[in-house]
UniProtKB/TrEMBL annotation:
Pfam families: DDE_Tnp_1, DUF772. GO terms for molecular function: DNA binding; transposase activity. InterPro entries: Transpos_IS5-like, Transposase_11, Transposase_InsH_N. Residues 18-115 form the Transposase InsH N-terminal domain. Residues 279-347 form the Transposase IS4-like domain. It comes from marine sediment metagenome. GO terms for biological process: DNA transposition. This is Transposase InsH N-terminal domain-containing protein.
Length: 444
């Protein structure tokens, strides 16, 4: 059911309003006035077509929690717990009086992310861009000059090894057989864990011949259980469990038949869409996750576009899609985009694209803008250290798409808050200087 609209609460003699408890010069209190909350109240109501049932949570509350979560690098549980303790958080999400209990269960944020999807997350990003322009954190003319780059958003998985994957697949097959009341010839519950542990010891001791022999035996254990279940598939009745069993068997079969240097490998059984991406980093040769394209303004480093790119596509092929998203979110097509050499062969004609290393036909102004291309790199670093871009905890490609855009929202919120704090400091410094000049003696 659609959420009920909020009504203005009357004054309470026993409870002071939040506006009387907090400092309205605080950056969060100022940011609360810059965001168009009515947009979420009207647009997000379309995600609830049902006319019966319990009314949904207030969209403003959910939007505010998502902003705070990614601005301060908090989990679902942490942002709800901190909301109870922080009156500025409560004021930011639209509360009138201080609340002593959590507004929602943390799992509510999961269901809201599933409802709004990538489109709803892009609306959140659009409102941060509008708030940035209104606050002065980003100039309106800066939206026409952007820098585009890609990075890797790692998935929340363990480092993949063959021994770990084979042992985990075996345990899943044994649990599946137990749930389907299938009698196995042997489940290897005693031998397989010991063998998986021994493989790690052989690898640590650099005894690779023994390691490969033990790994082959562990793979055989998993294959035997797989074939044993296949022979007894007719015992599983049709329904949801049979579909889940068939999906598991197909996934494990892919795991057992994949080649070391093949494509489409499985690196995690619970996240089979994870890609192995090499960005040429000396400290981390391979990263397991999904590629993310992001576009920022050249001058301020403000995020104006962000999108997950499953399948590890070539950077040059992703540029038209990135520019299209920027045009949708900002309402204007960029005039200039600066990129690195990985975008050669992009095929974009509507926007002027400058590739790093270009020397011919550049005016002094374009040379200056091209040198600013590398400014996007520290922005990516801040999004991974100060934000949550370093690791995605959401499931599947759908979770990657939503999480990437929300990370961009958090980065913009931090930019706006820093700008508001700096602006307040300048105002206070000017007032102090004026007061000092007023009380200073004339002969000084």
């Amino acid at each position: 059911m659609k959420p009920h609209p909020r009504t203005d609460e009357q004054d309470d003699l026993l409870r002071p309003r939040l506006t009387e408890m907090i400092d309205l010069r605080h950056a969060l209190a100022k940011l609360e006035k810059l965001i168009d909350w009515e947009f979420f109240e009207t647009e997000w109501a379309s995600f609830f077509p049902a006319t019966t049932g319990r009314p949904a949570t207030s969209p403003r509350l959910v939007a505010g929690l998502l902003y705070l979560q990614h601005a301060y690098r908090l989990s679902d549980d942490a942002v709800v717990a901190r909301w109870v303790e922080n009156p500025y958080y409560q004021h930011f999400t639209g509360e009138t009086f201080f609340q002593h209990r959590p507004p929602v269960d943390p799992s509510c944020l999961t269901r809201w992310r599933q409802r709004i999807g990538e489109e709803g997350a892009e609306w959140l990003l659009t409102k941060t861009i509008e708030a940035g322009v209104t606050s002065g954190a980003v100039e309106d003319c800066s939206l026409a000059r952007i820098a585009v780059d890609t990075t890797v958003m790692e998935k929340n998985i363990a480092h993949p090894t063959d021994a770990r994957l084979y042992e985990k697949a075996r345990r899943q097959l044994v649990a599946l057989a137990h749930e389907g009341e299938i009698t196995l010839r042997q489940n290897y519950n005693r031998l397989a864990p010991r063998l998986a542990m021994q493989i790690g010891r052989y690898a640590h001791a650099r005894q690779f011949k023994r390691m490969r022999k033990a790994l082959k035996k562990l793979k055989g254990y998993t294959g035997r259980i797989l074939r044993d279940i296949r022979r007894q598939l007719e015992k599983i009745p049709g329904g949801a469990f049979r579909e889940r069993a068939l999906d598991t068997l197909v996934l494990v079969s892919r795991l057992l038949h994949q080649n070391p240097k093949g494509h489409g490998k499985i690196y995690a059984l619970h996240e089979p869409e994870v890609d192995c991406i090499s960005k040429g980093k000396a400290r981390k040769r391979y990263e397991f996750g999904t590629k993310v394209s992001l576009a920022t303004t050249i001058d301020e480093g403000f995020v104006v576009g962000m999108r997950a790119l499953p399948g590890n596509p070539y950077d040059g092929h992703t540029l038209p899609e990135a520019l299209e998203q920027v045009a949708i979110l900002t309402g204007r097509t960029p005039d200039l985009a600066v990129v690195d050499r990985g975008y050669r062969g992009h095929g974009v004609s509507t926007t002027k694209v400058l590739i790093s290393g270009t020397r011919r036909g550049l005016t002094p102004k374009l040379k200056t803008l091209l040198r600013r291309r590398s400014a996007i790199e520290p922005e990516i670093g801040h999004m991974k250290t100060d934000g949550r871009l370093s690791r995605c905890p959401l499931k599947g490609t759908f979770g990657d798409a939503v999480f990437a855009v929300l990370c961009g929202c958090g980065h913009n919120i931090r930019k706006i808050l820093a700008h508001l704090r700096a602006l307040l400091s300048l105002i206070l410094a000017a007032l102090c200087a004026a007061a000092t000049d007023r009380i200073r003696p004339a002969n000084c």
